Amino acid sequence: MYRVLIVDDEPNILTALRRNLSNIPPSMLDGERLELIPANSPEDALQLAVAENFDLVIADLRMPGISGVDLLAEIAARQPYVARILMSGYADLEAIITAVNQARIFRFIPKPWNDNDLRMAVVQALHYRAILLENQRLADLVRAQRGQLERQDAELRRLEMEHPGLTRLERDESGAIFIDEDDL
Amino acid sequence: MPQSSTPRLHAALDAVGTPLLLLQGSQVAHANPAALRLAESLAGGQGDPELRLRELVDRCRSEHGNALPGRSLLLPLAGEDAALALLLDYEPLAPAAQPDGSELELALARLNTVQEQLVQSEKMASLGQLAAGIAHEINNPIGYVHSNLGTLQEYLNNLFGLIECCDSVISQQGVMTPERRAEVAERKRAIDFGFLVQDLPQLLAESREGIDRVRRIVQDLRDFSRVDRLETWSLYDLHRGLDSTLGIVWNEVKYKAEVRKEYGNLPLVECLPSQINQVFVNILVNAAQAIEQRGEIVVRTGTLNDTVWIEIADNGSGIAADNLKRIFDPFFTTKPVGKGTGLGLSISYGIVHKHHGDIAVESQPGRGTTFRIVLPQRQAA
User: Is residue B106 part of a domain?
Assistant: First the structure.
């Protein structure tokens, strides 16, 4: 289940997006389904984002109170791995620049939108996010394993310092320790 | 020479820096101060001014020949770093052909044209600034109507599929078996028939509303610009003007303020509708911009004797007393560069006065601003 937060102050946009996005076949989403959560105002969206985690946020640019750019930046501060898509019926260059630089959006979708383009953007955003998360998980794993290795190395070195030759002990099949006669 | 024009001619000559003598026959009728100074310097400051002037003229004539062609001449004086202009038997134009105001009228007409152009370009500039909001207002409904049509197509494909399924079941001979019933039921479930039945009318209603909104915005734009009509003095419903103007600026206003209309009973008012709408736009946009977070804009109208009044009041940041004195000055603006031309209110002032009306402002910093426009119901013939 992918959780997608949709934010627009225009209720009809929310229903149109719901109709459109609920038709994405699960086969395009690694067999997952989309759960679409509408928010009619940026304030509602922020409240939801404090309480719950989302995989993707789609927000309108021009909304009362908080702009879409500020909203996405704010949600990204709380949930860094949430994918972000901005929509707008009109945006000048300045607005798009701040959207990319500040809110680090994944896609900008103009209104009126092309239904297929929007679905593709949603699918790609979720894939991209999954790759990021996977990448993060693997990097953590590597770091953790390397950390374990380093701890083992350090322990071995300490033992070797205390009891030289200890780490180089050899045993026979029965577990008895070989003792080189030269060392005695 | 007509008596009345002489002092004017002399005054004009006196204002010229070049030494000038006005001659009538061989008499010096007038010498301007520059000529007097020249004559003085030539004579070494001695003797009678009249005499010195005569000497000056004689000297000119001797240096440049007696027969002076033409009526006015600029004569360089040999050996002097000066020139003397002579006006010979100069007669100002006859009274009938005098600057009887026709030139002034021409200048006035030209000024009026320039002002019309200024009003027009200001209107275009403010439309340009409103373009973002208008595009947003139009693209939102178009966006969801367009998307809904795509969904509708999918719904229809599903419904056609269901009809085909029913058809094939019906056309099979024999009684309705539970298996056939189940086939139809399965098909219905697959297309989520229940949801479809519930959602389809809603989809159509929303789309219709969207199209209505676009239609209204286009209508408002047309009312605002009046491009479909010649701009002539006409009887106009100011409430309609206010409403269509609010439609144009709605995207600037709706995020900032609730708009409360307290319309009185207004008669039709003789005015230039698109120019009056322009005044409304300027004041409404200013009102919205004066509100920082969320506020209220009240639009009131009413009549008083032979006039109508329109009040637009906001509870925004207000205008400092120093600025209040200058808000109708051209190019005066407190908005950041690119946000205002500084011409809006000055042009509004011009428009209202062209209507023989009055525009006044009251403001308290921190409390809000009220503009009051008073217009006569009819223009004097």
Answer: no
Residue A94: both structure tokens together: 């300045």
Number of domains chain B is built from: 3
Q: Does A16 touch chain B (CB under 8 A)?
A: yes
pTM value is 0.61
The rounded distance, in Å, linking the Cα atoms of B327 and A57 is 44
Token digits for B348?
A: 């509004």
Is B308 found in the same domain as B370?
Answer: yes
In this prediction, residue B46 carries a pLDDT of 66
- Strand residues in chain B grouped as ranges (E): 20-24, 27-31, 72-76, 83-88, 234-236, 257-262, 269-271, 295-304, 307-314, 358-364, 368-376
Distance CA B200, CA B142 (A): 18
**Whether B140 and A115 lie within 8 Å, measured CB to CB:** no
Same domain, B264 and B367: yes
Interface test with B, best of A8, A19, A58, A60 (most B CBs within 10 A): A19
Q: ipTM above 0.90?
A: no
Q: For strand B27-31 and strand B20-24, is the pairing parallel, antiparallel, or unpaired?
A: antiparallel
Which CATH topology does A2-136 take? Rossmann fold (3.40.50)
Contact B144 A10 (CB under 8 A): yes
From A85's Cα to the closest Cα of chain B, the distance in A is 16
| pLDDT score recorded for residue B117 | 76
Query: In this model, does residue B127 exceed pLDDT 80?
Result: no
In a domain, B229, yes or no: no
E strands present in A73-171: 83-88, 107-110
Q: Which domain holds residue B171?
A: 141-214
Q: Determine whether the interchain pair B147/A17 forms a contact, defined as Cβ–Cβ distance below 8 Å.
A: yes
> Which parts of B155-274 are beta strand (E)?
234-236, 257-262, 269-271
